[in-house]
């Protein structure tokens, strides 16, 4: 029998979260962002839940191929565009729309032989300073692209650095709107945080939104808001089982480095889950975990293959827990109780994104 750890991908939750994104920006088309293998869920496993989107946005050409193999004939957008000239052949063959963010990509496109002109998303660097043409160079890039026979429609896109925080998007959107005011073409600005927090702002007129993390049931602005407040559901649940129990006396310690010491006698469970499964080693004693759907806490250091959990709250709640009991590391327990991935991420000093993307190969996935 394999180790009892498993990741579940919830199709209903994906569908629900997608509907939430639509409701947050009615009359706007939605790119479901499925980069990084659908934030660690698996492109194939999220396809059913997200096929109601208007298009799929991603980075890897290999993932674009997989989306096409699933039978998706709608728009597919490469968020970083092409990396080398021969990628353009695949764009022609698979009808991929691609971002153009630098002169080198325009050079490659100008030399590309294609029967069918390409649909382009021209990217402005409005302050993030990763990809895109600065406002002073944006229009000349647009003009150059617009003259190429290889180019069909040009859409205009930018990405916010602070849609989730105090600084907000005001400066970036003002710059974007000013620079693009008299240019034709569809516009796309908002990621999940932009969509949930700013899409109702009338300056943020957009034809396309690009939610990623919210589709997967993580709040882009946690802890200011949590998924319950945004009405989002976890799309991934990481579950395992208790494979041993121990009775601790006062003064007994747990795990490597003896970092936890019992100050009362207590019963603990040992869970088949460790950092080699993608559970963050930075989670200290006290990180929330569900045993039999009851919220309790981890004890001591996370080891490669195991963690220890306090069984006291479960027993107190009348649950007979022990060998074989279900443990939910994040997501939804079988009884429906939810432990948001954001809480576990916060305990590890990171964000839900990183945890979803880091579930390791040895964890089996099930779609439900
Ligand atoms: C990843 C990404 C998104 C999605 O961001 P979330 O914060 O996950 O919603 C949107 N646009 C671009 C360009 C991205 O790279």
Which descriptors would you attach to this protein?
single chain, 368 residues, alpha/beta, TIM Barrel, Lyase, Ornithine Decarboxylase, Chain A, domain 1, 2 domains, eight-stranded parallel β-sheet, six-stranded antiparallel β-barrel, 19 strands, 28% helix, elongated, binds pyridoxal-5'-phosphate
- SSE class: alpha/beta
Task: Note the main sheet.
Answer: 8 strands, parallel
Q: Architecture of the largest domain, according to CATH?
A: Alpha-Beta Barrel
Low-confidence stretches: none
CATH class of the largest domain: Alpha Beta
What small ligands are held by the chains?
pyridoxal-5'-phosphate
What is the H level of CATH, i.e. the homologous superfamily of the largest domain? Alanine racemase
Task: Kindly report the average pLDDT value.
Answer: 97
Distance between the termini: 21 Å
CATH topology of the largest domain, anyone? TIM Barrel
Q: How much of the sequence is in beta strands?
A: 15-25%
For the secondary structure, the number of strands is 19
Integer-rounded radius of gyration: 23 Å
């Amino acid at each position: 029998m394999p180790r009892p750890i498993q990741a579940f991908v919830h199709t209903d939750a994906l569908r629900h979260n997608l509907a939430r994104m639509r409701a947050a920006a009615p009359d706007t088309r939605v790119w479901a962002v499925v980069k990084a293998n659908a934030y660690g869920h698996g492109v194939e496993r999220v396809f059913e839940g997200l096929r109601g989107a208007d298009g799929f946005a991603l980075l890897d050409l290999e993932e674009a191929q997989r989306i096409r193999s699933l039978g998706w004939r709608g728009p597919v957008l490469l968020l970083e565009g092409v990396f080398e000239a021969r990628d353009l052949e695949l764009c022609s063959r698979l009808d991929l729309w691609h971002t153009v963010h630098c002169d080198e990509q325009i050079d490659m496109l100008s030399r590309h032989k294609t029967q069918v002109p390409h649909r382009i998303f021209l990217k402005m660097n409005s302050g993030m300073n990763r990809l895109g043409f600065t406002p002073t160079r944006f229009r000349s890039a647009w003009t150059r692209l617009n003259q190429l026979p290889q180019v069909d429609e040009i859409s205009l896109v930018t990405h916010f650095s602070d849609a989730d925080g105090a600084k907000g998007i005001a400066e970036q959107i003002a710059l974007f709107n000013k620079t693009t005011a008299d240019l034709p073409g569809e516009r796309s600005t908002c990621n999940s945080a932009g969509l949930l927090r700013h899409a109702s702002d009338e300056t943020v007129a957009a034809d396309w939104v690009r939610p990623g993390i919210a589709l997967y049931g993580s709040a882009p602005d946690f802890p200011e808001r949590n998924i319950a407040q945004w009405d989002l559901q976890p799309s991934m649940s990481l579950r395992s089982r208790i494979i041993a129990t121990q009775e601790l006396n006062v003064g007994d310690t747990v795990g490597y480095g003896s970092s936890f010491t019992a100050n009362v006698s207590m019963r603990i469970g040992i869970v088949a889950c460790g950092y080699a499964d993608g559970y963050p080693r930075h989670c200290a004693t006290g990180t929330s975990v569900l045993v039999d759907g009851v919220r309790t806490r981890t004890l001591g250091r996370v080891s490669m293959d195991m963690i220890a959990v306090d069984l006291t709250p479960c027993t107190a709640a009348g649950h007979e827990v022990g060998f074989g009991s279900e443990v939910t590391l994040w997501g939804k327990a079988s009884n429906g109780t939810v432990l948001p991935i954001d809480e576990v991420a916060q305990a590890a000093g990171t964000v839900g994104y990183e945890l979803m993307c880091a579930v390791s190969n040895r964890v089996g996935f099930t779609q439900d």
